[in-house]
Amino acid sequence: MSNQIKRIAVFTSGGDAPGMNAALRAVVRASIFYNIEVFGIYRGYEGMIDGDFEQLDVRSVANILQRGGTVLKSARSDEFRTKEGRLKAYENLKKHNIDGLIAIGGDGSFTGLHKLYEEYKIPGICVPGTIDNDIAGTDYTIGYDTATNTAVEAIDKIRDTALSHNRLFFIEVMGRDSGYIAINSGIAGGAVAIIIPEQETSIDELVEKINRGADKRKTSSLVVVAEGGKSGSAMEIAEKVNEKSSYFETKVTILGHLQRGGSPTYFDRVLASKMGIAAVEFLNDGKTDSMVGIVNNKMVCNKFDDIMNQPHAIDEESLRIAKILSI
Ligand code: F6P
Question: What is the pTM of this model?
Fold first, then answer.
């Protein structure tokens, strides 16, 4: 370990995700382990612009491992998108003698770090934290496992009432433009159909599938809909289906921000701990302009240029499984 870095700053940015606190804890403790001073920046790039910095020690991150949300708070900053905003942020980093940055967040956080490196040569490593699992270069993002478990728990509960009333439910899950939460919560929750942005959906085929189930004495059905699909929201799809099928009374449930909260699963806590430590080690080793990832259970360091604007494709196997199970 070359120990090039003397003082880092860490922050969370974009939508919060369960496990961000576990990642922060790992960054702080690994920094101290390697004799690096560590500052926390509140409210992401907004706090960087406003100078909202605080030095952290081992105790600052006690009892946060199990907590959802982010104790550093998060924001989406419009000012940071401007050159003037970034200059203010840089001046605050200089004032605090920060010589390395770790951002915990999604693709917006990477773009910010990339810009700071391009314009001011501040080394930065990103830790992927978003429930969407929509980032190339990593099999999993922090928070995705917890959010998917939350969705499955909700789907199971909806199934109870759907069964009792012989109803058809359309359940909308988050994911922005990615179908990861939908495909896996749909498989785990036994959905009759899963609608994701990565695949074309034919309403006629969907209606046929629902009707086929009803013909085979299926008394209720669940359809999981990813929020970012081209066929529309769960509400819009339900309306289109209702126009063509009258087998079931139809209901729509939008899970929404419920999926962002809650205590992280063991998987997200361990993933966040590994990624937080890897980020400090990569930075201290002279790596920059990169994102930590987990690929085939190994920590990797991806250059931003290789992963930015790349899709994280849904694996063919999940699509195949969903199709077989929903006949
Ligand atoms: O990126 C995480 C996410 O929860 C997406 O799944 C969702 O589309 C979006 O953030 C919601 O953003 P906001 O919290 O700003 O409404």
Answer: 0.97
